[in-house]
Design brief:
alpha+beta, six-stranded antiparallel sheet, 43% helix
């Protein structure tokens, strides 16, 4: 389902890599339940590409002992894109990997196996499209496996749970840095040319870096023009390959910007919104779509049950709340089409100075980012119930502080706003938004115009005062899309700058911020009195399903030895009362993932015992 598997061994002994590859084909069938892979082999590598649910991609090309496989959706600056992999492979031989990486953009990963060097070269995007590696010891030989599914790589045998990742999943619904749920399955870095070879250390070199951007170099009208035209150009690039997109449309700025760009280019765009009828996203989307004359599909809430969550686990490799992902899947399947693409507004936060509160009162200062403050205000989970054993339990404050520091090495010369946003790309954007997009990409192509490097660079060049409070985007709407700008956002006021001509449209600000700050003051007062109720972080799902299997024993997670029995019993009691549901759902996600993996491994063992398949038996898995 929209994934690929590539296996390489040493050039002088291919028996082991063939064995692992055959096992991977079988495991893919067990995990994803799909046939019809496009298979290719060279003297040193074996690759299988399994189509998306809408029967498109990933795409393969091979030529004289060389091969290329591409996942996601890529665009070359000369106008060709996904589906033209043979042309991309030829371009690689003309200019090399480093130049090619700078010529390609989008949401993608590209793997090239060069028969001359017996080496795999991987080109990665911002880090949002997930691709993983695993090295397996088969006898005395190391076999290298690459895939866009971490779960498939884990299924190749003897995968051990990563206890840090398990806690990140349960408390944050996100796994960070290069980790996956399994210790020796690792995510490859973004914005890099990565060279891999069995028995050789990974070699990764960045081909583009935020550190090289010149901040505060765009201001005023020039900034407004630059951000609009950069979004327009990336949108135009998408439309050349996908002329009938479906755009997410909510009550905020980012999806509105994307839809406005599509509308300005005359695209026959459809839009979609999901949620209850009375939700602000739905009300705004319905009103705005009617105002500007674009079709809207409304997907109403639907309870996601245990079986749907279980079926959805492979879609996200178990790295995201399965109940929430089942809902996301339902929304995408409602609007997906054989030749279409889903367009969303992820990373639209950057030109808007989103979540800069931890930088106050020195927002924009050329000084070190206060990583501890950012961790405390943005990343440390609200709930940290002792459901994991004390000897495994993470100190989330230091855990996230150290991650933020690591993400910003080499960024010390940039203003703290750029450091903040760069850490967001590395952590939340690349892993949380990237996980959702990488999962839904297995159903049909998905993309955001804000992911293109020119849009990111333009956003980071804009002066801090213009980015703060979305000013540059509001001015952009006033100049280039006033029909979209005048319609109220979910907060009740328009997406326009405040001036004497628009001041009367902003009357909802007073009650909105009165309620916002009033709620915060009350919460702080309760906290100081010791009567605040601390729960799990708010979920983005439109429904809050309680699994019917409330007494589910979590046998497989318990068997790992990482859980605190008393803490789990307290959580089960809270879940029966309607509290602690999110944490329980994510523990269930972990349980379902381990169960799916165990079932697939059992099926392979049964196959080994029932047929005389030397190539599978020889792998020793």
């Amino acid at each position: 389902m929209g994934h690929f598997l590539l296996v390489m061994g040493s050039p002088d002994d291919q028996g082991e890599s063939i064995s692992v590859f055959h096992a991977g084909l079988w495991m893919s069938y067990e995990l994803f339940g799909r046939h019809g892979a496009n298979v290719c082999e060279t003297g040193v590598a074996y690759v299988a590409a399994f189509p998306r649910q809408n029967k498109t991609g990933p795409f393969l090309a091979s030529d004289n002992g060389h091969l290329l496989v591409a996942g996601g959706t890529w665009f070359h600056r000369d106008g060709y894109s996904s589906g033209s992999e043979a042309k991309l492979l030829s371009r690689y031989f003309e200019v090399g990997a480093e130049v090619l990486a700078k010529e390609v953009d989008g949401f993608y990963t590209i793997v090239i196996v060069d028969g001359r060097t017996a080496e795999a070269t991987v080109l990665t995007d911002l880090g949002t499209f997930h691709v993983f590696e695993r090295r397996l010891k088969v006898g005395a030989t190391e076999v290298l496996a690459l895939s866009t599914s971490s779960l498939l790589l884990a299924a190749l045998g003897n995968a051990q749970l990563n206890t840090t990742s398990a806690q990140e999943l349960v408390f944050s619904n996100c796994i960070y840095e290069n980790r996956t749920l399994f210790r020796d399955v690792l995510k490859l870095p973004g914005l890099s040319v990565v060279r891999l070879r069995p028995g050789k250390e990974l070699d990764a070199k960045q081909y583009w870096s935020v550190a090289n951007i010149k901040p505060d170099s765009l201001d005023g009208d020039a900034a407004v023009d630059a951000i609009w035209h950069s979004v327009l150009n990336s949108t135009r690039t998408i439309l050349r390959a996908f002329p009938a997109p479906v755009c997410d449309l909510t009550g905020g700025y980012d999806s509105r910007t994307v839809t406005a760009a599509m509308h300005a280019l005359g695209a026959p765009v459809r839009t979609v919104v999901a949620g209850p009828e009375d939700h602000p996203d739905v009300q705004v989307a319905k009103g705005l779509s009617f105002r500007v004359g674009v079709p809207l599909v409304h997907v109403p809430p639907r309870q996601m049950g245990f079986e749907e969550a279980e079926q959805t686990v492979p879609l996200s490799d178990g790295e995201y709340d399965a109940f929430e992902m089942a809902w996301v899947r339902h929304v995408h399947e409602t609007v997906a089409s054989p030749n279409g693409i889903g367009v969303h507004g992820s990373f639209g936060e950057f030109p808007r100075g989103y979540s800069w509160n931890p930088l106050f009162p020195r927002t924009g200062a050329y000084s070190a980012l206060d990583s501890a403050k950012l961790a405390r205000m943005r990343y440390v989970p609200i709930s940290s119930q002792p459901i994991f054993r004390a000897d495994y339990r993470l100190d989330f404050q230091s855990h996230f502080t150290e991650m933020i520091d690591r993400s910003n090495v080499g960024m010390e010369h940039q203003p703290n706003t750029i450091q903040h946003d760069h850490s967001y790309i590395a952590l939340r954007g690349g892993r949380w938004q990237g996980r959702i997009a990488s999962s839904t990409n297995r159903l049909w192509p998905v993309i955001s115009p804000f992911l293109f490097r020119d849009v990111v660079e333009t956003s980071f060049r804009i002066r801090t005062p213009m980015r703060r409070r979305s000013l540059v985007i509001r001015k952009m709407f006033a100049r280039y899309a006033p029909q979209f700008g005048r319609f109220p956002l979910e907060y009740g006021y328009p997406a326009l700058p405040v001036n004497w001509k628009t001041a009367h449209l902003f009357w909802p600000i007073a009650p909105y911020f009165g309620k916002y700050y009033g709620t915060r003051i009350i919460a702080r007062a309760k906290s100081s009195l010791g009567i605040a109720k601390r729960g799990a972080a708010v979920s983005s799902t439109r429904t809050e399903p309680l699994p019917a299997q409330q007494e589910f024993a979590l046998e497989r997670v318990r068997a790992t030895g990482i859980l605190d029995d008393a803490g789990i019993e307290r959580l089960l009691c809270e879940s029966r009362d309607g509290n602690g549901t999110l944490l329980f759902r994510r523990l269930l996600t972990l349980e379902l993932t381990l169960g799916r993996l165990q079932k697939a491994e059992g099926a392979l063992l049964a196959l080994q015992g029932s047929v005389s398949n030397k190539s599978i038996k020889r792998a020793g898995i």
